[in-house]
Specification:
It contains seven helices and 37 strands. It has about 625 residues and is mainly beta. The longest helix has 22 residues.
C-alpha cells in the first residue's frame, strides 16, 4: 500500500440493501429560505455613508467607522465594513423573528485587514454573533481573504434574536478592519434523503515526545507505525464507513470517509491518566488540542489513530504511554472527536470504531436534542444489563450459555444479537433508535431515523445553499379584457402582461430585467412564442407582453386562475398570478369548416417573434475513555 505523506483517501459510497445511488442524488432537499433581509447588502439605493436597508450599526466606543462598501464583496458588488482604529466592540445588527426551541444556522463571509488579538477576557476577532448573548462564531484574525464563518445555536425561549456581524466582543475589544457579506440565517430542518456525515480519519505515523516526571527527570518516548499498521488502519476505517455504519443505522446514515496522514511528527501529548508503567507514573494521549493543526472544519467527525507503544531511545526501555484503547471527547454540537490507539484497531473487526464513534454521535444528538431522552450509555454490563431490544424487550447476548464472557466479536464470527453485530444487537440498536431500558422496553431510545434526518455538526440543512423565495410580480392575463376569458379548447394564443412597478424600494422594469426564455406560464409551463413592450397599466413605463399558445399552457376547463414564473437576468425568481374565466367547455361541438383570419387579440402591430428555449429550472422552494 502506498503511504505517501500527502496521501488522502476519499471514499464516498452509497450501497444500502442492494440499492446503489450517487452522492449527487443524496443532496437535493427542500431548503428553507434566508431569514435575514438583505443579507447580501445588494438591495437599496447605495450610499457609502448610509446603512443598507434592514441593517443598523452599534458600537461600544464612538471611534468605530461603519460603511456600506462597494469595493469588496464575495458575490455581487457590495458588503458592509467596520474599521476600529482603537480597541472596540462594533457590529452591524438586524433583529429577526424565530421559533422558540429551534436550532438555527448563521453563516456568512468575513474578510479582515490587520485584526488584532487581545489580552481581554475574550479574544473574538471578527465574528458572527447573537447580540445580547454569549453565542458567537470562531474569530477571524490578521489579514485574511474572504473566509466562511458560521454559528449553530438554539433559540431557547426567544421569539426574536439579533444577529451581529461583529468586530470585537463583550470583554474582548479589538482593532483592525473587517468586511462581512452574504449573511444567512436558516432553521435546521430534517432532510430526506438524510445528510451524509463527513468523517475524517487522521493517522499519525510518528510520535517523539519528551516529558519530565515529578522528580524533575526527563524522559523521551518514540513510536512509529509500521506499514502493516497503516494498512490495517485504512482497511478497518474503510470497512467501518462502507459496511458497518450503513448496516448499524439500518440504512439511515451513509457517511463520506476521508483518510489523511498528517505530514508531521507529534512532539506533544496531553496528560490523561495515572499509568505506573510509564516513567514518572503518568499516562498521556493524543487529544484534540494536540491534533488542532490538522482538524478540518469541513468535517462532522474527527477520528484519530496513533501509536502509544514505543520506547525511550536513551534507555532502551519499551513501554505503553497510553492508558486506554480509545478515548472520546464530548464536544456538544461541535465537530465530534474520537481517538484510538493502534493496538485496538483489528484486521478482522471494527469494534473500536463502532464504539468510539458511537460515543461521538450519542454526545452530539443528545446535545442537539434530536434524540429521545435519556441518552444511551453505550457501555453495557453483562451482569446488570440496562438495555434490551425495543419494542420486544429481548435481552442482548452478552455471555455464553455457561455464563462466561464471550470472545471478541469479529467479522468472521459475529455474535447473534451481541454487542457489535451489524444486523441485530446492542450497537446496531442504539445506532438505529431501537434499544430501550429494561424497565421500559417499549420506549425506544438511541439515534432514531428522525434524528439522523437532521444531519451532523456540518452536514445539515443550514449548509445547503439557500434558494431565495421568488418575489411577486403583477401580471395581467389578456390585458384590456377585464373578464380574462380563456377557451382551453382553442388552438390560438393568449397575451400575458408582466407589469412594471415604480415602488422606489423595489422597482421592477420587466422589459429590461426579465430573462424571457426562463418564463413559464400555466400548469404545463408553456414558453413564450412572441413578446412586445407596451404600457398596459398607464404608469408611463413599458410593460412586457408575452404570448403563449393556449394548448401548451395546460389551462383546463374550470380553472379560475393561472400563474406565471420566471427569472431576471440577475437570477432572481419571480411569480405572478391572475384570475381567469374558462369558456367553451360545457358542450363541445364539431368545428365548422371555414377560413380563419389571423387573430391578434386587437394588437397586431410591431409583433416580434421570440423563440423561447425551455429551461429546466427549480420551482421554489467532557471526554469519555474506554479500556
Amino acid at each position: 500500500m502506498k503511504t505517501n505523506k500527502m496521501l488522502s483517501l476519499v471514499l464516498g459510497f452509497v450501497c444500502v440493501f442492494g440499492l446503489t445511488t450517487t452522492s449527487a442524488e443524496l443532496n437535493t432537499p427542500e431548503v428553507a429560505s434566508n431569514l435575514l433581509s438583505n443579507g447580501s447588502f445588494e438591495e437599496g439605493d447605495y450610499s457609502p455613508i448610509e446603512s443598507p436597508p434592514y441593517w443598523t450599526w452599534d458600537a461600544w466606543q464612538p471611534t468605530a467607522i461603519f460603511a456600506w462598501d462597494d469595493t469588496e464583496a464575495t458575490t455581487g458588488s457590495k458588503s458592509v465594513k467596520i474599521d476600529a482604529p482603537t480597541p472596540n466592540d462594533a457590529r452591524w445588527i438586524q433583529t429577526v423573528d424565530v421559533e422558540p426551541n429551534t436550532w438555527y444556522f448563521l453563516s456568512g463571509w468575513i474578510k479582515t485587514d490587520n485584526v488584532g488579538h487581545t489580552s481581554d477576557f475574550v479574544d473574538a476577532g471578527a465574528n458572527l454573533s447573537l447580540f445580547g448573548t454569549y453565542e458567537r462564531s470562531a474569530g477571524v484574525f490578521g489579514s485574511q481573504d474572504w473566509t466562511r464563518n458560521s454559528l449553530l445555536f438554539n433559540s431557547g425561549d426567544d421569539e426574536q434574536v439579533t444577529i451581529g456581524a461583529r468586530l470585537g466582543y463583550w470583554s474582548g475589544t479589538t482593532t483592525g478592519t473587517a468586511w462581512f457579506d452574504d449573511l444567512q440565517l436558516t432553521p435546521i430542518v430534517p432532510m430526506d434523503p438524510h445528510p451524509r456525515w463527513k468523517i475524517l480519519v487522521l493517522v499519525y505515523e510518528s510520535v517523539d515526545f519528551t516529558f519530565t516526571d515529578s522528580t524533575g527527570s526527563e524522559h523521551r518516548f518514540v513510536s512509529t507505525l509500521t506499514e502493516e499498521e497503516k494498512e490495517r488502519t485504512v482497511t478497518a476505517a474503510t470497512r467501518f464507513a462502507e459496511i458497518d455504519v450503513p448496516a448499524l443505522t439500518s440504512g439511515n446514515m451513509v457517511p463520506e470517509l476521508t483518510i489523511r496522514f498528517p505530514d508531521r511528527v507529534v512532539t506533544e501529548l496531553e496528560y490523561s491518566c495515572s499509568n505506573p508503567s510509564v516513567p514518572g507514573g503518568n499516562g498521556y494521549w493524543l487529544g484534540p488540542t494536540i491534533a488542532r493543526p490538522d482538524l478540518d472544519p469541513a468535517f462532522d467527525s474527527i477520528f484519530v489513530i496513533w501509536k502509544g507503544q514505543g520506547m525511550d531511545p536513551g534507555t532502551g526501555q519499551d513501554y505503553s504511554i497510553n492508558c486506554y484503547g480509545g478515548l472520546t471527547w464530548d464536544t456538544g454540537v461541535g465537530q465530534t472527536f474520537a481517538s484510538a490507539e493502534i493496538r485496538s484497531v483489528s484486521d478482522n473487526q471494527e469494534n473500536v470504531f463502532k464504539h468510539e464513534w458511537g460515543h461521538s454521535i450519542l454526545f452530539y444528538y443528545d446535545a442537539a436534542g434530536y434524540a429521545p431522552k435519556p441518552v444511551v450509555d453505550n457501555h453495557i454490563d453483562a451482569f446488570e444489563p440496562a438495555y434490551v431490544h425495543c419494542p420486544t424487550g429481548e435481552e442482548y447476548t452478552l455471555l455464553d450459555q455457561n455464563g462466561n464472557d464471550l470472545p471478541d466479536e469479529t467479522n468472521d464470527n459475529p455474535v447473534p444479537n451481541g454487542v457489535y453485530n451489524n444486523d441485530r444487537g446492542f450497537t446496531h440498536d442504539y445506532y438505529s433508535g431501537t434499544t430501550a431500558t429494561a424497565d421500559q422496553p417499549t420506549r425506544c431510545l438511541g439515534i432514531t431515523p428522525e434524528a439522523w434526518a437532521y444531519g451532523g455538526p456540518v452536514s445539515h440543512s443550514g449548509n445547503i445553499p439557500v434558494v431565495p423565495l421568488p418575489f411577486t410580480a403583477d401580471i395581467d392575463i389578456k390585458p384590456g379584457n377585464t373578464r380574462n376569458v380563456v377557451n382551453p379548447r382553442e388552438s390560438g394564443g393568449v397575451w400575458v402582461a408582466i407589469l412594471s412597478d415604480t415602488d422606489p424600494t423595489s422597482p421592477f422594469d420587466p422589459p429590461s430585467q426579465v430573462d424571457i426564455p426562463t418564463v413559464e406560464f400555466g400548469p404545463d409551463s408553456a414558453n413564450a412564442i412572441r413578446f412586445k413592450v407596451k404600457d398596459k397599466n398607464n404608469d408611463g413605463l413599458g410593460d412586457l407582453l408575452l404570448r403563449f399558445k393556449i394548448p401548451e399552457t395546460g389551462i383546463a376547463c374550470g380553472d379560475t386562475e393561472a400563474t406565471l414564473i420566471g427569472e431576471t437576468f440577475d437570477g432572481e425568481s419571480f411569480t405572478g398570478t391572475d384570475s381567469i374565466k374558462t369558456v367553451g367547455c360545457k358542450h363541445a361541438k364539431h368545428p365548422k369548416k371555414k377560413h380563419h383570419k389571423k387573430r391578434c387579440d386587437g394588437d397586431c402591430d410591431n409583433d416580434k417573434t421570440h423563440q423561447g428555449k425551455k429551461n429546466n429550472r427549480k420551482h421554489h422552494n467532557n471526554k469519555h475513555h474506554d479500556d
